[in-house]
TrEMBL record:
It comes from Lactobacillus amylovorus subsp. animalium. One of its GO terms (molecular function) is NADP binding. It catalyses: 2 reduced [2Fe-2S]-[ferredoxin] + NADP(+) + H(+) = 2 oxidized [2Fe-2S]-[ferredoxin] + NADPH. HAMAP family: FENR2. FAD binds at residues 47, 55, 60, 99, 129, 289, 329. This is Ferredoxin--NADP reductase. Gene3D superfamilies: FAD/NAD(P)-binding domain. Binds 1 FAD per subunit. Its EC number is 1.18.1.2. The lineage of its organism: Bacteria, Bacillati, Bacillota, Bacilli, Lactobacillales. Homodimer. InterPro entries: FAD/NAD-bd_sf, FAD/NAD-binding_dom, Fd--NADP_Rdtase_type_2, Ferredoxin-NADP_redctase_2. It is an enzyme of class 1 (oxidoreductase).
Amino acid sequence: MLKLIQQHIEEVFKIKKVDLAIIGAGPVGTFAAHFAHLHGLNTILFDSLSELGGQPQMLYPFKQITDIPAFGTIKAHDLIQRLTANLENETEIVTNHKVENIVKNADGFTIDDSVFARSIIIATGAGAFKPKELPLKMNDDIKKRVHYFIKDPKKIANQTIGVFGGGDSALDLALELANYADIKLIHRRDQFRGLESNVQKLKSLKNVEILTPYLPKDIQLIDNKLDISLKEMGDTQLRHEQFDQIVVAYGFRANNRFVKKWGIDLKGTNIPVDRAMKTNIDGIYAAGDVVSYSGRVPLIALGFGEAQIAITSIMRNLFPEKTLTIHSTSI
Protein backbone atom coordinates (compact mmCIF):
# COMPACT_ATOMS: atom_id res chain seq x y z
CA MET A 1 0.00 0.00 0.00
CA LEU A 2 2.81 2.43 0.93
CA LYS A 3 4.55 1.77 -2.39
CA LEU A 4 1.31 2.49 -4.29
CA ILE A 5 0.89 5.78 -2.43
CA GLN A 6 4.53 6.70 -3.11
CA GLN A 7 4.11 5.86 -6.82
CA HIS A 8 0.96 8.02 -6.99
CA ILE A 9 2.77 10.98 -5.37
CA GLU A 10 5.66 10.64 -7.82
CA GLU A 11 3.29 10.57 -10.80
CA VAL A 12 1.26 13.59 -9.67
CA PHE A 13 4.18 15.82 -8.68
CA LYS A 14 6.75 14.40 -11.14
CA ILE A 15 9.23 13.83 -8.37
CA LYS A 16 12.82 13.26 -9.48
CA LYS A 17 14.32 10.01 -8.17
CA VAL A 18 18.02 9.76 -7.24
CA ASP A 19 20.25 7.43 -5.28
CA LEU A 20 21.87 10.26 -3.33
CA ALA A 21 21.11 13.88 -2.46
CA ILE A 22 23.98 15.96 -1.11
CA ILE A 23 23.06 19.10 0.82
CA GLY A 24 25.88 21.64 0.78
CA ALA A 25 28.23 22.38 -2.13
CA GLY A 26 31.38 23.50 -0.35
CA PRO A 27 34.68 21.63 -0.83
CA VAL A 28 33.46 18.48 0.93
CA GLY A 29 30.05 18.43 -0.74
CA THR A 30 31.48 18.92 -4.23
CA PHE A 31 34.11 16.22 -3.67
CA ALA A 32 31.40 13.90 -2.33
CA ALA A 33 29.42 14.43 -5.54
CA HIS A 34 32.47 13.52 -7.63
CA PHE A 35 33.25 10.43 -5.55
CA ALA A 36 29.59 9.35 -5.77
CA HIS A 37 29.85 9.65 -9.57
CA LEU A 38 32.91 7.37 -9.55
CA HIS A 39 30.74 4.72 -7.87
CA GLY A 40 27.87 5.19 -10.31
CA LEU A 41 25.45 6.81 -7.88
CA ASN A 42 22.76 8.96 -9.47
CA THR A 43 23.30 12.15 -7.46
CA ILE A 44 21.81 15.61 -7.01
CA LEU A 45 23.71 18.42 -5.24
CA PHE A 46 21.90 21.27 -3.44
CA ASP A 47 23.27 24.60 -2.22
CA SER A 48 21.56 27.74 -0.95
CA LEU A 49 24.19 30.00 -2.54
CA SER A 50 24.30 31.13 -6.16
CA GLU A 51 27.50 29.24 -6.92
CA LEU A 52 29.52 26.27 -5.75
CA GLY A 53 32.31 26.46 -3.20
CA GLY A 54 30.68 27.44 0.08
CA GLN A 55 32.59 29.56 2.56
CA PRO A 56 36.04 29.24 0.92
CA GLN A 57 34.67 30.61 -2.34
CA MET A 58 32.49 33.33 -0.84
CA LEU A 59 34.39 34.43 2.27
CA TYR A 60 38.09 33.83 1.67
CA PRO A 61 38.76 32.98 -2.02
CA PHE A 62 42.31 34.38 -1.82
CA LYS A 63 43.33 32.52 1.34
CA GLN A 64 46.38 30.31 0.84
CA ILE A 65 45.43 26.83 2.04
CA THR A 66 48.49 24.90 3.14
CA ASP A 67 47.08 21.64 4.54
CA ILE A 68 45.74 19.95 1.39
CA PRO A 69 48.07 17.03 0.58
CA ALA A 70 50.08 17.26 -2.68
CA PHE A 71 49.37 20.96 -3.23
CA GLY A 72 51.84 22.55 -0.83
CA THR A 73 49.82 25.75 -1.01
CA ILE A 74 46.75 26.59 -3.05
CA LYS A 75 44.31 29.51 -3.05
CA ALA A 76 40.82 28.62 -1.87
CA HIS A 77 39.36 29.85 -5.17
CA ASP A 78 41.72 27.64 -7.18
CA LEU A 79 40.90 24.62 -5.02
CA ILE A 80 37.19 25.12 -5.67
CA GLN A 81 37.81 25.48 -9.40
CA ARG A 82 39.63 22.15 -9.45
CA LEU A 83 36.96 20.41 -7.38
CA THR A 84 34.14 21.64 -9.61
CA ALA A 85 35.87 21.51 -13.01
CA ASN A 86 33.83 18.60 -14.43
CA LEU A 87 31.08 18.38 -11.83
CA GLU A 88 28.24 19.66 -14.02
CA ASN A 89 28.89 16.74 -16.38
CA GLU A 90 28.72 14.26 -13.51
CA THR A 91 25.98 15.53 -11.21
CA GLU A 92 22.74 17.51 -11.33
CA ILE A 93 23.43 20.78 -9.49
CA VAL A 94 20.73 22.92 -7.89
CA THR A 95 21.95 26.31 -6.61
CA ASN A 96 19.95 29.11 -4.96
CA HIS A 97 17.91 26.45 -3.20
CA LYS A 98 17.72 26.16 0.57
CA VAL A 99 16.41 22.73 1.49
CA GLU A 100 13.45 23.23 3.81
CA ASN A 101 11.78 19.86 4.30
CA ILE A 102 13.00 16.28 4.42
CA VAL A 103 10.33 13.62 4.92
CA LYS A 104 11.32 10.00 5.57
CA ASN A 105 9.23 7.33 3.88
CA ALA A 106 9.45 3.61 3.13
CA ASP A 107 12.41 3.56 0.76
CA GLY A 108 14.12 6.89 1.29
CA PHE A 109 13.37 10.59 1.65
CA THR A 110 11.26 13.21 -0.09
CA ILE A 111 13.05 16.56 -0.28
CA ASP A 112 10.91 19.69 -0.65
CA ASP A 113 8.22 17.69 -2.50
CA SER A 114 10.44 17.65 -5.60
CA VAL A 115 13.15 15.01 -5.14
CA PHE A 116 13.03 11.44 -3.84
CA ALA A 117 16.46 10.34 -2.62
CA ARG A 118 17.34 6.88 -1.35
CA SER A 119 20.06 8.41 0.82
CA ILE A 120 21.31 11.83 1.90
CA ILE A 121 24.66 13.35 2.84
CA ILE A 122 24.67 16.61 4.79
CA ALA A 123 27.82 18.62 4.06
CA THR A 124 26.79 22.09 5.17
CA GLY A 125 30.03 22.98 6.95
CA ALA A 126 29.50 25.59 9.65
CA GLY A 127 26.02 26.10 8.23
CA ALA A 128 24.17 29.02 6.76
CA PHE A 129 26.44 32.03 7.15
CA LYS A 130 26.06 35.78 7.13
CA PRO A 131 28.97 38.24 7.16
CA LYS A 132 29.40 40.46 10.19
CA GLU A 133 28.52 43.88 8.86
CA LEU A 134 30.18 47.24 9.36
CA PRO A 135 28.21 48.66 12.33
CA LEU A 136 27.56 52.08 10.78
CA LYS A 137 24.49 53.79 9.42
CA MET A 138 24.65 53.86 5.61
CA ASN A 139 22.38 54.97 2.78
CA ASP A 140 21.99 52.93 -0.41
CA ASP A 141 24.66 54.87 -2.32
CA ILE A 142 27.21 54.10 0.38
CA LYS A 143 26.16 50.45 0.65
CA LYS A 144 27.00 49.97 -3.04
CA ARG A 145 30.64 50.72 -2.19
CA VAL A 146 30.83 48.55 0.94
CA HIS A 147 31.64 44.92 0.15
CA TYR A 148 31.86 41.68 2.09
CA PHE A 149 32.98 39.51 -0.84
CA ILE A 150 35.39 40.33 -3.67
CA LYS A 151 35.21 37.91 -6.58
CA ASP A 152 37.16 39.82 -9.22
CA PRO A 153 39.96 42.05 -7.85
CA LYS A 154 40.57 43.50 -11.31
CA LYS A 155 37.35 45.50 -10.96
CA ILE A 156 38.91 47.61 -8.20
CA ALA A 157 42.19 48.23 -10.06
CA ASN A 158 43.90 51.60 -9.53
CA GLN A 159 41.55 52.59 -6.70
CA THR A 160 42.08 53.29 -3.01
CA ILE A 161 40.54 50.45 -1.02
CA GLY A 162 39.95 50.20 2.72
CA VAL A 163 40.13 46.72 4.24
CA PHE A 164 38.63 46.38 7.73
CA GLY A 165 39.63 43.42 9.89
CA GLY A 166 42.55 41.77 11.63
CA GLY A 167 42.32 38.03 11.01
CA ASP A 168 43.77 35.75 8.37
CA SER A 169 40.98 36.53 5.91
CA ALA A 170 41.61 40.28 6.15
CA LEU A 171 45.36 39.83 5.69
CA ASP A 172 44.96 37.45 2.74
CA LEU A 173 42.46 39.83 1.17
CA ALA A 174 44.71 42.87 1.62
CA LEU A 175 47.66 41.01 0.09
CA GLU A 176 45.64 39.96 -2.94
CA LEU A 177 44.03 43.37 -3.53
CA ALA A 178 47.43 45.06 -3.19
CA ASN A 179 48.28 43.55 -6.58
CA TYR A 180 45.68 45.85 -8.12
CA ALA A 181 45.03 48.85 -5.86
CA ASP A 182 46.28 51.06 -3.03
CA ILE A 183 45.30 49.50 0.28
CA LYS A 184 44.68 50.84 3.76
CA LEU A 185 44.23 48.09 6.34
CA ILE A 186 42.31 49.18 9.44
CA HIS A 187 42.22 47.10 12.63
CA ARG A 188 41.06 47.93 16.16
CA ARG A 189 44.15 46.39 17.78
CA ASP A 190 47.87 46.83 17.24
CA GLN A 191 48.25 43.05 17.11
CA PHE A 192 46.73 41.04 14.28
CA ARG A 193 45.13 37.61 14.67
CA GLY A 194 46.58 36.36 11.38
CA LEU A 195 49.99 35.06 10.37
CA GLU A 196 52.83 37.38 11.34
CA SER A 197 54.55 36.58 8.03
CA ASN A 198 51.58 38.09 6.18
CA VAL A 199 51.68 41.18 8.38
CA GLN A 200 55.35 41.64 7.49
CA LYS A 201 54.62 41.17 3.78
CA LEU A 202 51.99 43.91 3.95
CA LYS A 203 54.34 46.24 5.81
CA SER A 204 56.93 45.79 3.07
CA LEU A 205 54.57 46.93 0.30
CA LYS A 206 54.73 50.60 -0.70
CA ASN A 207 51.06 50.74 -1.71
CA VAL A 208 49.82 49.39 1.65
CA GLU A 209 49.24 51.48 4.77
CA ILE A 210 48.35 49.84 8.09
CA LEU A 211 46.22 51.87 10.49
CA THR A 212 45.94 50.62 14.08
CA PRO A 213 44.33 50.74 16.59
CA TYR A 214 41.25 52.37 15.04
CA LEU A 215 37.50 51.81 15.04
CA PRO A 216 35.20 53.18 12.31
CA LYS A 217 32.70 55.64 13.79
CA ASP A 218 30.98 57.24 10.80
CA ILE A 219 30.82 56.96 7.03
CA GLN A 220 29.75 59.57 4.47
CA LEU A 221 29.89 59.90 0.69
CA ILE A 222 31.66 63.18 -0.12
CA ASP A 223 32.82 64.22 -3.60
CA ASN A 224 32.34 60.66 -4.87
CA LYS A 225 34.59 59.26 -2.12
CA LEU A 226 33.79 57.33 1.03
CA ASP A 227 34.86 59.52 3.95
CA ILE A 228 35.28 57.40 7.07
CA SER A 229 35.81 58.78 10.56
CA LEU A 230 38.20 56.60 12.55
CA LYS A 231 38.51 56.80 16.32
CA GLU A 232 41.82 55.79 17.84
CA MET A 233 41.36 53.34 20.70
CA GLY A 234 41.95 55.05 24.06
CA ASP A 235 41.66 58.52 22.53
CA THR A 236 38.86 60.92 21.57
CA GLN A 237 40.50 62.23 18.41
CA LEU A 238 38.98 61.35 15.04
CA ARG A 239 40.96 60.69 11.90
CA HIS A 240 39.37 60.95 8.44
CA GLU A 241 40.32 58.62 5.57
CA GLN A 242 38.97 58.60 2.02
CA PHE A 243 38.37 55.51 -0.09
CA ASP A 244 36.85 54.60 -3.41
CA GLN A 245 35.46 51.40 -1.90
CA ILE A 246 35.88 49.35 1.26
CA VAL A 247 35.87 45.65 2.06
CA VAL A 248 34.80 44.39 5.48
CA ALA A 249 36.46 41.18 6.71
CA TYR A 250 35.10 40.88 10.25
CA GLY A 251 34.21 37.21 9.86
CA PHE A 252 30.75 35.72 9.77
CA ARG A 253 27.95 34.26 11.86
CA ALA A 254 26.88 30.73 11.04
CA ASN A 255 24.57 28.05 12.39
CA ASN A 256 23.36 24.58 11.52
CA ARG A 257 20.27 24.60 13.70
CA PHE A 258 18.00 24.40 10.65
CA VAL A 259 18.83 20.67 10.41
CA LYS A 260 17.07 20.07 13.71
CA LYS A 261 13.66 20.36 12.05
CA TRP A 262 14.66 17.41 9.85
CA GLY A 263 14.79 15.27 13.00
CA ILE A 264 18.58 15.07 13.08
CA ASP A 265 20.29 15.15 16.46
CA LEU A 266 22.70 18.00 17.14
CA LYS A 267 25.57 18.39 19.57
CA GLY A 268 25.84 22.16 19.85
CA THR A 269 25.69 23.16 16.19
CA ASN A 270 27.25 19.93 14.88
CA ILE A 271 25.86 16.53 13.90
CA PRO A 272 27.11 13.50 15.86
CA VAL A 273 28.03 10.61 13.55
CA ASP A 274 29.34 7.07 13.96
CA ARG A 275 32.36 5.56 12.21
CA ALA A 276 30.34 5.10 9.01
CA MET A 277 29.34 8.79 9.07
CA LYS A 278 25.75 7.83 9.88
CA THR A 279 23.50 10.25 11.77
CA ASN A 280 20.72 9.17 14.11
CA ILE A 281 18.44 8.67 11.07
CA ASP A 282 19.01 5.59 8.91
CA GLY A 283 19.92 6.67 5.40
CA ILE A 284 21.15 10.14 6.34
CA TYR A 285 24.90 10.68 6.61
CA ALA A 286 27.09 13.72 7.23
CA ALA A 287 30.64 14.77 6.36
CA GLY A 288 32.92 17.77 6.76
CA ASP A 289 32.93 20.46 9.42
CA VAL A 290 29.25 19.88 10.19
CA VAL A 291 30.05 16.58 11.93
CA SER A 292 31.07 15.88 15.49
CA TYR A 293 33.00 12.95 16.95
CA SER A 294 35.80 12.54 19.46
CA GLY A 295 39.13 13.87 18.24
CA ARG A 296 37.86 15.57 15.09
CA VAL A 297 39.71 18.66 13.82
CA PRO A 298 38.23 21.13 11.28
CA LEU A 299 40.28 20.35 8.16
CA ILE A 300 39.08 20.25 4.55
CA ALA A 301 41.32 17.25 3.88
CA LEU A 302 39.67 15.33 6.73
CA GLY A 303 36.26 16.15 5.27
CA PHE A 304 37.27 14.57 1.96
CA GLY A 305 37.98 11.30 3.76
CA GLU A 306 34.68 11.49 5.64
CA ALA A 307 32.84 11.93 2.33
CA GLN A 308 34.51 8.78 1.00
CA ILE A 309 33.53 6.84 4.12
CA ALA A 310 29.92 8.05 3.86
CA ILE A 311 29.61 7.11 0.19
CA THR A 312 31.23 3.72 0.78
CA SER A 313 28.67 3.13 3.55
CA ILE A 314 25.85 4.21 1.24
CA MET A 315 27.01 1.87 -1.53
CA ARG A 316 27.08 -1.08 0.86
CA ASN A 317 23.61 -0.20 2.10
CA LEU A 318 21.96 0.43 -1.28
CA PHE A 319 23.77 -2.23 -3.30
CA PRO A 320 24.85 -5.01 -0.90
CA GLU A 321 25.07 -7.46 -3.79
CA LYS A 322 27.79 -5.44 -5.55
CA THR A 323 31.50 -5.92 -5.08
CA LEU A 324 32.65 -2.48 -4.00
CA THR A 325 35.75 -1.14 -5.72
CA ILE A 326 37.67 1.40 -3.67
CA HIS A 327 39.13 3.78 -6.24
CA SER A 328 42.67 5.00 -6.87
CA THR A 329 44.67 3.51 -4.00
CA SER A 330 43.54 -0.11 -4.31
CA ILE A 331 45.33 -2.50 -6.65
